[in-house]
Specification:
Elements lengths: L4 E4 L3 H11 L6 E6 L10 E6 L2 E7 L9 E5 L3 H13 L3 E2 L4 E2 L8 E6 L5 E6 L4
Parallel strand pairs: 1-4, 5-9
Antiparallel strand pairs: 2-3, 3-4, 6-8, 7-8, 8-9
Helix pairs in contact: 1-2
Protein name: VOC family protein
InterPro entries: Glyas_Bleomycin-R_OHBP_Dase (IPR029068), Glyas_Fos-R_dOase_dom (IPR004360), VOC_core (IPR037523)
Pfam families: Glyoxalase
Length: 129
């Protein structure tokens, strides 16, 4: 249903370093960037995705206000673990270590972190072991 989602961050360079470190665990990378010059000085951002298609954007504009939750699909439970390890190692705060969340469903294996701007970022695998 969604084509892409974007959120504003307080420090684009710092956040790019963070997401550059965690996205490979999910099979994604920065596939596009736009500069202030390209947008007429109104926006600068980086788009992450697969196969050249950006689906998750971070950009200038200051931290998105309010609580934001983004959940990324992980292809395996090991990818959830790798995401969590990379995120914590890159400065994220723990918001729920990797594990089964049976209150969602029997195979809901996820990890939650708070990114550098406090956004609740999740990696989830819905497959059995």
């Amino acid at each position: 249903m969604l084509d892409h989602i974007g959120l504003s961050v307080t420090d684009l360079k710092r956040s790019r370093c963070f997401y550059d470190a965690v996205m490979p665990a999910l099979g994604a990378a920065c596939v596009m960037a736009v500069t202030l010059e390209e947008t007429g000085g109104t926006y600068e951002g980086a788009g992450y995705g697969r196969d050249g298609k950006p689906s998750f954007w971070i950009g200038s504009g200051g931290r998105t206000q309010g609580s934001l939750h983004v959940a990324f699909v992980a292809p395996t439970r090991a990818a959830v673990d790798a995401f969590y390890t990379a995120a914590i190692g890159s400065g994220a705060a723990d918001n729920g270590p990797p594990g089964i969340r049976p209150h969602y469903h029997a195979n809901y294996y996820a990890a939650f972190v708070l990114d550098l701007d406090g956004h609740n970022i999740e990696a989830v695998c819905h497959l059995p072991e």
